[in-house]
Structures are given as structure tokens and as C-alpha cells.
Amino acid sequence: MVLGLYAFADIAADGAPHLNSAAGEELVRVERAAAVALGSRAPEPPGTLFITTRRVIWVSEVEKGKAYAVDFLAVSLHAVSRDPEAYSSPCIYTQIETEDGSDEESDESDSEVNVETELSKVTEMRIIPSDPCQLDGLFEAFSHCAELNPDPNAESDEENGWAHRDEGDEDMTGGSDAECEFSDVNPIGQTDEHDITHAVVELQINDQRFEDAEEAEHETHGNGH
Amino acid sequence: MPLGQRAGDKSESRYCGVEVLDFPAGEELPAVLSHSLSSSFDFLLAPLVDPDYRPTPGSVLPVAASDLVLGPAQWSSHIVGKISEWIDLDAEDEQLRLDSEITLKQEIAWASHLSLQACVLPPPKRSSCANYARVVNHILQGLTNLQLWLRIPLEKSEPMDEDHDGAKDNSDMSDTVDSWEWWNSFRLLCEHSSQLCVALDVLSTLPSMNSLGRWFGEPVRAAILQTNAFLTNARGYPCLSKRHQKLLTGFFNHSVQVIISGRSNHNVSQGGVLSGDENHTEDTAVRHALSPYLDYIAYIYQRMDPLPEQERFEINYRDFLQSPLQPLMDNLEAQTYETFEKDTVKYTQYQRAIAKALVDRVSDDDVSTTKTVLMVVGAGRGPLVRASLQAAEETGRKLKVYAVEKNPNAVITLHSLIKLEGWESLVTIISSDMRCWEAPEKADILVSELLGSFGDNELSPECLDGAQRFLKPDGISIPSSYTSFIEPITASKLHNDIKAHKDIAHFETAYVVKLHRIARLAPTQSVFTFDHPNPSPNASNQRYTKLKFEIPQETGSCLVHGFAGYFDAVLYKDVHLGIEPNTATPNMFSWFPIFFPLRKPIYVPSKTPIEVHFWRCCGATKVWYEWAVTAPSPSPIHNSNGRSYWVGL
């Protein structure tokens, strides 16, 4: 699979992207007049959004030949955002898994070549439909297609080498059936099936923000009693 | 997103939540969730229902958001439901009580509909919470996947020792607060339901370390860290006291998830914003008010050392109950041998012990003329034979080895090994049970590894007393002695796993288990000791011990689910081998502790000793343990006559 956002060039004369029909790619939803915002950059002028069974493709209507795509396998999170405090326009918010996992965004000049290089580093993308009423439908389409693309890196149940006795009195068996049942559920807070092993809260461990405070002496005495 | 990437840690404590304090009305919930997720939080603790709602006939529940606004996957993965805090099922006011019951059931039903994994129940409002527990117990019996987390503030006031006056003692008693007691009352009333768990509210002050330790044996799922618990460092950023840091690390190591709650008390500016770039400023998302607290929590997580390799290997066995091996009655499988043979630390200790014995036995002057006769009884597939020959080579002593093994399958492997290593002239294989074999000569040294997690529970005494016939009167046995130990523990999870079998036999069985979510309540004490050679080999190996455990006063009251068992062995002189926590041999993995459960957990009030009795009983065909608590309240004698658990001779 391809990680990250990439430029898409395979566009037909009518403005629709050519799908990889041989690989079973199908069109699920089309959204006209949808803008996209990459990372913290300003939104691009409206284009057309195509959601397929494998990826999200956005084709600019203003700039001929300009289009972006991202595979669903690289979309680690999608959500509806309506809070003006979070973002000025209602939109679909997505997080994109990149190759190096870096949140670093360069401030390089806006030349064509650099823009293309930058695409693979984008980790957040917002899709802003001109009609906010379409958000729920878009979210549903996203969810449907995400389910069609389960994470191949999902943890497999490797059998541990530890000895387990199978013979002997069945009543003596330890362990619990409830254990197996519970462990099938994703932990609370984990995003869908994508366990992003390299996307974590980024910190500098020696950051001075995290220095200890001077702890009051009376507190120490109080705890000692 | 996860707080950090710690090698080997796949637990849910990597995911941090945030509490939503104001009811997200008018479909605000998706926006709040989106904002929190984009700020690196992983889930919300959010009210499900408008707190102003009171039930009236025909009214529709005013929910935060319907299942059309957020899909089931979002609800399940990113929302922990908060049940309305006004609910008070033990209120004096009858209308409030009835409204509370109706609403609690409605909210739980709604949470189940949404496929939430967990809901947080409001804390008990007074020490008496019988009606609250009754309603919750009723609900629990109908749940399948939903967990209920009872919110409990982490507090315990310390009794004043100066008051010796009787009248003041009574007054003081009523003033003493220990929130663990609230939890204990509630879960007892709810019959120790496995779906009833704890969400601890962590405040600015913490009880004593011993008191905190109790919670690690309880089903704590979340620690709700109040912003008021944070201090301010010299740079104006939030941070935690050293004691809070230590507690937090303990939570991370026990799969407890952190939820940050409260208003921001620290206004730290975002230095990185390019204020000059008007376009950039406009598009930057507003930073979450609680992000500085999350950053600090992530800092604490990322500062932790990676899990040791051995811990990573064993992590899947945490709190997993296993039946102990029966090597005397059953023939072990190749996989079992393979696993135990990888424990290089164990065989290093044996090699050291054998080397010392060889040097003591044969002086340097007699090296060239004296051959030591060594018998490995219970040779298995040969690791002790290898350790013995390596010890001989290392010390320059000459050795004649007899490898005695009763498992015919292991004997086949032994033959291959000896041919492979070219040990034909040094090693004689005896395919026989050591209890029946007649040795052609007496041995100087007898080596065995018949030890179980409790020392003698794999019937090492019976085997070695039987093998003593082979030993010269002044001969050496390795091990020369071993002792078992126990300590009382709180272990909610183990109790619930055993209870799931719904019979007495499972509560009268000892289990081998890698203990993890437990509270060790008092220091270990020794139970049984066996010496080899046995000065009185014909004496019985029956034993009886009575022990008294004093739990430190500052711990407070606790619940004892059973006893953790360990062993320590003296292989030879100062060479030890064991798993007793205070003297455990590092990096060894051949043994997990043993757990002796109690049928009914026993409540131990503060300052009250525990009295426990252990018996080791011997019959013609089996050996078994019996155990019972007699104080503070008597339990049945467990495993009477070996009816549930025994070790076959």
C-alpha cells in the first residue's frame, strides 16, 4: 500500500478519475464543489471529491490536472467536525498515516516540485463540502470504505511457546473463557483497527516544560503521619 | 493518539481520555470529540443525557447525540458514558430516589444500545449505599459487554493516634474516611460482579503508599486525574508531585487509563504560533485547553523504561491461571522440556552449586586419582547432565554420571544427546523411576530439579527421600533444602476468573499464575521446609503450620482473596535459587508463583491480624494441601482430604 497523500494524474476528459477496475476499485460517492485543506494550509478552491472502495481522490476544478489521492489504508482516522472552535467550516477531518510518521511541515517556497514533495508529509486533511448537510453522508461513505480496508498490520494471535497442558482432568483447567471474549474488543481510545505504532504524542523528553515543581515541605510532613 | 511508543506495551493505558464537564447539547458531541481527537486525546468521558432531565411519562430521553450522529464504532472506541451525577438512590427524598432509579436504568439502556464499552457511575454519596448497589446489581445481571466503572475519590484520612480517650475514639471513628471501604461495600453488595470496576478520582493529596497499593489488586480501569492535582513548575507549566508521578507509573504498568478532568489552571501561551502570518493564524486549530496536561502525562509515559525482554515474553501470561505440572504422575511433553531448558539462569546456578560441591568433595591434591560419582535423578532431556559435566570441566574434577529418568520419551532424547556430545564414557542412562531403581554404587552427589512453585509441591521430598538410598552417608544433595512462603493478597481478577467456573473445586485448587494485578498485603512468611539428605528419611513428609500476618496500620482495611505462594531453595551452601519476592533469582522464568484462593474473600479490618493454617497431607497415592483462615473470621478448611486438588505419587 501507499502511505500518505500523493498527486493523482490519471484523470479522464470529463474530469473523473480513472479507477483501477482490474483491482476491483469501485466508485462509492461523488461530492461536487468540495474544498480540501491540507494540514494547516488554507483550503484549496473547490473541486470534486471521489470516494472509491480503495481511496479518496480530490480533483481540482480550477487548476486542470491538479488532483490528490490517499488510500484508505493510510487514513487512520476520520470524523465530522462542526465546532467552529476546532475549524472555521464544518468539514470531514482526517488523519493520514505517512511514511516517516513525522509531523514536520516544511516552510519551503511554493514551487511546483516542492508542493509535490510536501504531499507525502501531510498528516491532516479536511474536506469542506459547500453544503454542510452532506457531512453525514460523507462520513458514512468514509466509514463504509474504511471497513472495506482493514489494517493488514493488525496484531495476529501468535501462539506463545509456553507449555500448556491439554491432558489431565478437565476440571483442573485454569484460565477463563471470559478472558478470550474480552480481549477481542479494541481498547477504549484505539482508533478503529489501525494501531498506529509510530504516530504518538510528540514530545522532547528533555523539554523544560516538564520540570518538577518545588514541593511544599508541609505536604511531605502531612503524608508522613 | 497513543501517549508514546514503549516496546512491548500493548495495553490500553497508552490511550488517554478527557472528561466533558458541560453537557454537549444540540449535537455538539461530534465537534467536541473531533476537537479532542485532533488534540491527541483518544476518548471522551461524556455525559450521555441532559442533567436537567427528570423522568415524566412518555418523555423522550434528551441524549447528547443519537446513533445517527455518531456511528457505533465511534461510540464504542471513543466515548465512555458518564451517568448523570444528580442520581442519588439512597436519598431520603422518595421522589428523588425513584427518579434516580428510572433514569439510571434508562441511561444504561441507552449506553448498551450505543455499544459503549464502559460507563462511569457517580460515586456513592454516603457510606450507606445499599439501594444504589441493589439497582446496579440488578442492571449488572442483564449486561453482556458494557462495563460499569464506579467513580471513587482516592482519599483516606489518617486516624489520629494521640486520642486514647474512649469517647474521642468513637468520634474519631465516625470522622475517618477511607474510600476503599465504599468500594468494598458496593462490590460485596453486587456479588463481586466482574463487570463492576473502579474509576479512581485522583486528587491533590494522596493516601499512604501502602494504602494506595490496595488498589492494584482491584479492578481499576481508569484514573481520573483532576487538574487541581497538578502543581506549577518554575516555568508556569503543569506538573505532578513525585508521589503522583510514581502512582501514575504504577497505573501505566497495570493497564489503567488516564482521563484528564477539570478546568485549566495553567494559561501557557503557544510560543510556536507565527503571529505575523495572518493567514496561518486564521487556519490554526484552537489548541485544547487541557493539552498542557496531556503533554505532561505523555512525558511521564515516554520517560518509562521499555519492558524487559523477559517481561515481554511473559506478558500474555499475566494473571492467567494454570494448573501446576505433575511431572511425577504424568510424562512431560517435549515442548514443556524445551521451554524450561531455555532458562539459562537456573542451570547456571546449578552449575555453580555442583562446582562448589565438587571442590568441597575432592581436594586439589586428589584430583587426578579420585572420580566423583554424581547422579542426576529426574534427568529429563539432559540439562542437568550438561551442567554437571561443565562444572567438572571447569573445576578439573573427574566425574561419573548416572542419568536417571522415568519418562521413556525423554530417555530417547537423552540417548541422542549423549551420542551427539560424545559423553558415552562419562554418562550412564538409567531408564527407571528413581523410587524403584537399585543403584550399582553409591553417589557422592545427588542432583535434581524436582522443585515446584511452592518448593515441595511437585513431591520433591518423596522423590529425594526415596533416592537417598543411592547417596553415601556423607554425600551431598543439590538442592540441600527448600522452603515455601506465603503472603495474603488482594486479587479481584483471579477471584472472578475462578468464580466463573461456578463450583467449589476450582476454589480449592492451587494455581500457577504470573501475578500482576494484585496487592501484596503483608511480608511473606515461611511455611514448610525440607532438608536433603533427610536426617530422618522414614519420617513422614506431612506438615502443619499456623501463621499470623499483621497488615500495616496505614494500609487500612482490605479484602483477602487468597495467598500467593513462593519458594526459595538452597542448592548448596550460598548458592540459592528461588522466586520468593525478597530473594528472587533475577531473570529466571521456570516458575511463576502459586495462588491458593479462598472460597469467600475475607474482609480484614484495619489493625486486625490474619491467622491462616496450612497443612501438607500425604496418602498412599497422593499428596495434597489444605488451608483455612481462622481470623479475623473463619473460612472453611479448603480441599479437605484432597477432594479438589492433589498431586499424584
TrEMBL record, chain A:
Pfam families: Voldacs. InterPro entries: ICln, ICln/Lot5/Saf5, PH-like_dom_sf. Residues 168-182 have a biased composition (Acidic residues). Gene3D superfamilies: Pleckstrin-homology domain (PH domain)/Phosphotyrosine-binding domain (PTB). One of its GO terms (biological process) is chloride transport. Residues 149-190 are annotated as: Disordered. Keywords: Cytoplasm, Nucleus. GO terms for cellular component: cytosol; methylosome; pICln-Sm protein complex; plasma membrane; spliceosomal complex. It is found in: Cytoplasm; Nucleus. PANTHER family: CHLORIDE CONDUCTANCE REGULATORY PROTEIN ICLN (PTHR21399), METHYLOSOME SUBUNIT PICLN (PTHR21399:SF0). Belongs to the pICln (TC 1.A.47) family. This is Nucleotide-sensitive chloride conductance regulator family protein, expressed. It comes from Oryza sativa subsp. japonica (Rice). The lineage of its organism: Eukaryota, Viridiplantae, Streptophyta, Embryophyta, Tracheophyta.
